[in-house]
Amino acid sequence: xxPVLTKLAALAIWALAATAAHAQPKxxxxxxxxFTNAAEVKARCDAGLKGARQRVGQLEKRKVDAGWLAxxxxxxxxxxxxxxPTDFVLNVHPDKAxxxxxxxxxxxxxxxxxxxxxxxxxxxALQKAPKTDGIDAELVRLASGQFEDSGVALPKAxxxxxxxxxxxxxxxxxxxxxxxxxxxxxxxxxxxxxxGVPASVWDKAKRDDQGRILLGVDYPSYVPVMRSxxxxxxxxxxxxxxxxxxxxxxxxxxxxxxxxxxxxxxxFGFDNYVDFNLRRQMAKDGATATRFxxxxxxxxxxxxxxxxxxxxxxxxxxxxxPLEQTKVERWDAxxxxxxVKLQKFSVDQNAFRPYFPPQAxxxxxxxxxxxxxGVKYERIANKxxxxxxxxxxxxxxxxxxxxxxxxxxxxxxxxxxxxxAVWPLRGSATRVGRTPVAALVVNFDRNGLTLDEVETxxxxxxxxxxxxLSKTRYAATAGTSVMHDFVEAPSQMLEDWVYDKQVLKxxxxxxxxxxxVPDAMVEQAKAAKHYGKGGQFGRQHLYASYDITLHQQxxxxxxxxxxxxEGATPLGxxxxxxxxxxxxxxxxxxxxxxxxxxxxxxxxxxxxxxxxADKLSADVGKRYREQVLGQGAQKPEPELVKDFLGRExxxxxxxxxxxx
Length: 660
Ligand SMILES: [Zn+2]
Known about the structure:
Elements: E1 5-6, H1 38-61, H2 68-92, H3 96-117, H4 120-128, H5 134-149, H6 156-181, E2 186-189, H7 199-202, E3 213-216, H8 219-228, H9 232-243, H10 247-267, H11 273-278, H12 286-319, H13 330-345, H14 358-373, E4 375-380, E5 390-396, E6 402-409, E7 421-426, E8 437-441, H15 451-468, H16 489-495, H17 501-504, H18 506-510, H19 519-531, H20 533-552, H21 558-567, H22 584-587, H23 596-608, H24 618-627, H25 637-645, H26 652-659
Parallel strand pairs: 1-7, 6-8
Antiparallel strand pairs: 2-3, 4-5, 5-6, 7-8
Helix pairs in contact: 1-2, 1-3, 2-3, 3-6, 6-10, 12-13, 12-20, 14-15, 15-16, 16-23, 20-21, 23-26
Zinc ion (ZN) binds at residues 4-6, 459, 463, 488, 491.
């Protein structure tokens, strides 16, 4: 349950990102296009689109025989290989000209994708394609749903409008993210104002002409200031800068995005986008998702209020002010929550950094997967989009065969995507020996990770492993192409691993010179996390409810609704701030789907029960790899969970945890 995401298919599978050559590579070859300049992006774009159109033409004319589904999947693979790298590098390439060219190309691919989604000839052939088993049937069912969601079965006028809307949505979402990525926001602080913040966070930062330190709002700067700056004014300034990321232009974009989605749903006869979007997810409709969210509120409300009273008492003590005149502000919450955790549980997240150097932490996380899943990660030399980006080859330990690749981009830089995410660059397809590739992008402090950040790393690696250990017949149903209210489950399951002493001991196997993190520190962090559940779930609940309510509004007004909903929470709304302007999840693929983080967590906690005795169990891990990760979306998600657990999934572990 992290404020992070994987980039996943929105409405059509060809909106998926991906990379590589179709000529069945036995060994995952280093083949990522590095894009040295904008002209190269344009040339690849032209060639890719031309090739894609030819292939669609061939598929339209092809006889609908036993080989048709494979031919259809060949097209998916071609799109992954040609569209995918462009969609990805626009988020990470160090050269702005390349990012801009990739963004322009990405719009052309979106136009191509929405046309393909409405291609009647291909859709009809898909309906008629011979199926040999359940895997074929599932591909037809999922792909048909994607065509239908793209408007292929609508009357002509509605279909044309649907395409216009899809293309506009892609463009508006891109613009929304670009406004955040390229804003280059800097906040100026004197050294005195940064009292309490570790010097390593700011001593190398640029300064303005008055000698003030300039910090960005990226996580390695933002989080330490919010956690540790003694100065309330400094925290407030940083918090406001972050909370206003995207600004009024993004609020306008969000209103247009949500309005267009509402119109889109109406083309299909739905009252609102929530019911349209959820009908193919586990939740099925908005009412079910809302009922679920209500049950979460019921379980955490009292806890959130109790926690807040403790923060208030601590603030009064800290400032020597009378309790009745003390109010906890938004920019106080993290700071006092850290103080209370320090007092109650002796936990200081910054104190974990020396134990978790970034590179060793990555190798540790990979080693956890090695132990659990029977694989081996080996770093190889390979030129990628940036000199610091790394390539790992994943091999199966039993066969010794290479089965996948993983790219990792660890550190922040200007113009880089500023959250943590995984891109499924290439899906597995056993029918042609196609091996998967995932790209993991995070923004860590070079001085080391907090335990929270190690948790984020494991979460993201969970997505990458879902991509890389997939062994599906078709690329179109590979890895993370599962339902969006399931996709977080494998990642969330692993978050809990960082609180396990036995798991943490693996750090010394990859980094013998790293000092072992003391057991007591981990125990305390675990207790503190448990303690902070009220605030944490309260916030997730707000995001999810806001997303659903906004998408149910007849005339969406992102700011008034946010002010009202955040205003109803214990910490209230701060006039002049605009959180939704930076809420990239719901402008993009998680629109009307943010509840999926909480929904997936129910599944994740149920999955964890199988590892209760031993989180590193190679036996359980092997079954998990085969029965859940390996299957991608080629079986319905509830069946995957049932196969693995040997029973129907239920929410008992989740609600036990909330109430504990
Ligand atoms: Zn995630």
